[in-house]
Amino acid sequence: MIRFFNKYIGIKNFIFLVLAILFIIFLAHIKDVAILFFAAFVISCSLNPIVDKMCEKFKKLSRPASSAIVLGLTLLICFMLFIPIIVTGGEQIHSFISTLPERFEHSKKFLLSLPFLSNTSLNNLNIGEMFSSATDVTSNIVSKSITFSKSIASFLIYFLATCIIIYYFLADKETVKKGYLSLFPHDLKKKAEEILDSISNKVGGYVLAQVVTVTCVGLIIFIGLAILGVDYAVILGLITAIFDLVPIVGPAVAFVIILIAVCKMSLAKIILTILLFGFAQWAENNLVRPYVFGKLLDLHPLIIFFFLLITAQFLGLIGVVFAPAIAATFCVLLEELYIKNVN
Q1: Residue 239: which residues within 8 A CB-CB, separation 6 or more?
Q2: Does the pTM of the predicted model rise above 0.70?
Q3: Longest pairwise C-alpha distance within the chain
């Protein structure tokens, strides 16, 4: 046993593994900060190749300047993509929310018309009581304006902090790398560098994979609903894309919202809408996601699903969103520190 341990695992790898476990336990106590830094690291890994190519092509341009330009252009592109959608869908959002009580009531009547639901507790559900009057809503918004303002301020602070961390990850790439390597003994520095490069390459493709996946789903829903003549096609496509960031639960919530939006239409269009949503999910799970995530992250779907459950329990919603990147990081560490040595 001792001979096997010394030959295949090694005392240095064992010590490093113990320190890594202790470090993970420490991160669990500061998980919000850890997730913030990990998210910034993932995004910076996806932007690093662009900064590297920019530095090679424009040799007179310093890396900090290239990093600032790439990060600025990325933010600008995101705003340019989302602002027209938000402006276009703004009226639809207002109209959709104002008609929600009526749509809920119509959905309730439809459900109660089904034989197996006619005698359930839905009969006692008063939809009108679920929505207050316009005056009550206004006063409620005013009373909670301070809390809402704090939430907005907190979001802006986290957003700015993330942008700053991403910038320093990009601009000081070599400095950060040297600092990371300085933590290891001389004979382990090469191995540590290989692990870092492997993790960076894998998680760098996560952002692109996620963007491609949710964009495909959102476009399928938007185009399909527009063809069927469904109101709020733009906002429903956007809602589906956003909720699709949260696996399993997100698509289910988006599906319920879409059903509420089409509940007043004919039965044929409701069925076509259900088929459209089913096709979008089938295309995502069987065509887009396996190819994109498998190509860019090289992970089996079962591994991703396992980490979805783990991160959902310990890290919440943000952890679920970054579950594939966390899975990629763990798999690289497991392969480099154990599997390669054993095999």
Answers
A1: 254, 257
A2: no
A3: 77
